[in-house]
Design brief:
Layout (H helix, E strand, L loop, with lengths): L8 H15 L3 H12 L8 H13 L3 H14 L4 H13 L3 H14 L4 H13 L3 H14 L4 H13 L3 H13 L8 H16 L3 H10 L7 H14 L3 H14 L4 H11 L4 H14 L5 H5 L6 H18 L4 H5 L6 H21 L12 H17 L3 H14 L4 H13 L3 H5 L4
Helix pairs in contact: 1-2, 1-3, 2-3, 3-4, 3-5, 4-5, 5-6, 6-7, 7-8, 8-9, 9-10, 10-11, 11-12, 12-13, 13-14, 14-15, 18-20, 20-21, 21-22, 21-23, 22-23
């Protein structure tokens, strides 16, 4: 519906420039053009111009003035969808989402088919978890723009969120039938994967497997295709096929933890000694991979854990891996493992200082940086177990020898923070 107070042609062109300036974030120019319109005595109270001026002022951080102008504009033109829409945008910028939704609904009373208002309304409805309202809005958008992919996907997603999987599948299937599939059509590929996800969430695992096998040639993301097949085979109890796929996936990415976990499930490995076997095989097949060396530490205990941790720590400290401690932090929930790690580290420190080796029996000498990274790890270790003063002593040792290494100061600052020495933590630098 047109405004109850339409602008003359010259001012209407200026108003279009105001809108364009807002969209292009040229706010000062937008204010200049709105001022030109409002300088006309007959149009000084033009509602939509006042509202747009307020919206522009809001973008410049002048909230109080912005609200004054928008409310003035709304009072002068209550039947304008622009005024109501702008007022809703202001409310949304202040996170008053319920009020913003009310404004959008009022705007739609005067222009029920306005696409921009409907889109803004649907976004707020999904944010406020008003799924039924979102469904109705997406249905209206689908009616207005039936050729747009987003209209169909948005409407199907509404039913998906309402857990009406059957209706969501019907909508997606109807849309799929209308598509002209091209070679390497990534958007169509994602549509098929979304369809498959709906089938999985509906508990129709066999139908999902049949679906992904049927359209496997049209799915461009081959990695997701194989991962989905492996998960579905596991859920259907087809463990041999799942294990075969996971082994192939590990050849593609031997650092992915989920592939190892999936392989364990597929092979029904429950006992630690059985689980170790796949990681030992992986270490032989992928000697440079760190994931099999790290994951085995999660479930091993006692002497086995000590032996594997010894190997893992020495490898990391030799290479000088700064995030080595971060990779092991999840193990600190087990006091026994913490004790073993501490014993190994303090043993390394003593031997490296005396013999430049990790152990007295070792023949090969280590480089001086190995001791530096050992101090670095020990400092983080003591910080993690709550011994901040001891951690501070250890982090100061490598700083004295290598004052240009940034990572050392990061840890030192964190330790100062723990010791509530906020000033020193803020100004820790080299």
């Amino acid at each position: 519906m047109p405004s109850s107070n339409p602008l003359p042609p010259k001012e209407n062109n200026l108003f279009k420039r105001v809108l364009r300036c807002y969209e292009q974030k040229q706010y000062k120019n937008g204010l200049k053009f709105s001022k030109q319109i409002l300088s006309n005595p007959k149009l000084s109270e033009h509602g939509e111009t006042l509202a747009m001026k307020g919206l522009t002022l809001n973008c410049l951080g002048k909230k109080t003035e912005a609200y004054d102008f928008v409310r003035r504009g709304l009072r002068n033109d209550l039947r304008s969808h622009v005024c109501w829409h702008v007022y809703g945008l202001l409310q949304r910028s202040d996170r008053k989402y319920d009020e913003a939704i009310k404004c959008y609904r009022n705007a739609l009373k005067w222009d029920k088919d306005n696409l921009q208002i409907l889109r803004d309304l649907s976004l707020l409805q999904i944010q406020m978890r008003d799924i039924e309202g979102y469904r109705d809005t997406r249905h209206q958008l689908l009616i207005l723009r039936p050729v747009q992919r987003a209209s169909w996907i948005g409407y199907a997603m509404a039913y998906h969120l309402l857990q009406d999987y059957e209706m969501a599948m019907k909508i997606l299937e109807e849309f799929r039938k209308t598509q002209n599939v091209k070679q390497f059509d990534y958007e169509h590929s994602e549509l098929l994967l979304y369809q498959n996800l709906v089938l999985q969430e509906a508990g129709l695992h066999q139908e999902a497997l049949d679906h992904i096998n049927q359209y496997s040639e049209q799915i461009v993301d081959k990695l997701e295709l194989e991962e989905t097949k492996a998960r579905l085979h596991c859920k259907l109890g087809q463990d041999a096929k799942a294990a075969e796929i996971y082994k192939e996936l590990l050849k593609r990415n031997n650092e992915n933890w989920f592939y190892y976990e999936g392989l364990e499930k597929a092979l029904h490995l429950l006992q630690p000694e059985d689980r170790i076997t796949i990681y030992e095989e992986a270490k032989k097949e992928f000697p440079r991979a760190s994931a099999p060396k790290r994951l085995v530490l999660n479930f091993t205990l006692g002497d086995t854990f000590r032996e594997l941790m010894d190997e893992y720590l020495q490898r990391g400290l030799k290479k000088g891996v700064p995030p080595l401690f971060i990779t092991l932090r999840s193990l600190y929930s087990d006091p026994e493992k913490v004790r073993i790690i501490e014993e190994l580290l303090l043993g390394y420190e003593m031997s490296l200082k005396l013999n430049e080796t990790f152990k007295e029996t070792d023949e090969d000498k280590e480089t001086p940086t190995t001791l530096l990274w050992t101090y670095f790890f020990i400092a983080q270790h003591f910080d993690q177990i709550g011994q901040a003063k001891k951690a501070l002593e250890y982090i100061q040792k490598p700083i004295q020898s290598t004052p240009t290494l940034v990572e050392l100061y990061v840890v030192q600052g964190r330790i100062y923070k723990v010791l509530t020495m906020s000033y020193r933590a803020a100004y820790t630098r080299y």
